[in-house]
Amino acid sequence: MRTALVILHAAPGVAGVLTGLLALSPPRPDDGRRRWRDLYVGCIAILIVGMVALVVYDWAELDTAARVAFAGLGGLAAIMGFRLWRAHREASDQPHGWQRRYIDHVFFTYVSLWIGLLIVPALNTPAPQVAVPIVVLAVLGTGHVLLTRYKRGVLSHDAQPT
């Protein structure tokens, strides 16, 4: 049962890493990416359900530190869901500057997936207390640089008259 729950959690996380880049661009009527955005949201939703089910299944065997860590991950999952909902609202309402906020919301969820994906191997190193912070800082730093470049290109393109 535990293996099935791990797969239910991990598979949509990997799929989300693959589809997230296609969901990052602010929606335009003719961009043809709606299915990718919907798939990305579905991946995140299934990942969250899998994580909650896994934590509930393992709760009795978890020590206090693990319970605190998993409660924190549950909070992150809730924030990810909220950020995706906010991205949807920004794209639906399209208030002034919505594209930047849309990208920021989706990117938050996307970088969270990368951190989750890379923390697992870091936890299995001989010095996880060193490896985990390094992984997190590397993902956040790389993500910030790439996001800044991406937003500059996308937002300047969107500002161009058509």
UniProtKB/TrEMBL annotation:
Domain of life (superkingdom): Bacteria
Keyword list, A-Z: Membrane, Transmembrane, Transmembrane helix
Residue intervals passing through the bilayer: 6-27, 39-60, 66-85, 106-124, 130-147
Protein's name according to its UniProt entry: DUF2306 domain-containing protein
